[in-house]
Amino acid sequence: MTLPDPAASLNGIRSGNICDSCNRRIQHGDKVSMYATWYNKGGWTPRRTWCMKCCPEAVDPGTEGADEVIVEAVFWSHQLAGVRVKDRSYPREQ
From first to last of its 94 residues, what are the pLDDT tens digits of the chain? Predict the structure, then answer.
């Protein structure tokens, strides 16, 4: 018997399936929220995953050097499905 992979992915990067705030286990079919950053090399990197009860409303404060996003999605077969951008913060021009 093969156990399912216990991680979601965004751009091939794994992220846990436990809420980073309350430690609630995120199950198949649950709606979740994720904070991720984009740097010039490497694509999107997941930083935090939350259940919908713990999810922040916005990227606040934003950083100066990264494109940041909070997305909502369904945790489906250890992947994110139906991803919708909730908030986005673009890097400042220097």
Answer: 333 344 445 555 555 588 999 999 888 899 999 998 887 777 788 888 999 999 888 888 777 677 889 999 998 877 888 889 998 888 765 4
Domain boundaries of the chain, sorted by first residue: 7-89
Report the predicted TM-score, pTM, of the whole model to 2 decimal places. Answer: 0.73
Place of tokens 């940041």: 68
Residues whose CB falls within 8 Å of the CB of residue 29, separated by 6 or more in sequence, listed in order:
74, 75, 76
Cβ(62)–Cβ(79) under 8 Å?
no
Find tokens 């945790």 and name the residue. 75
User: What is d(CA 59, CA 91) in angstroms, rounded to the nearest whole number?
Assistant: 12
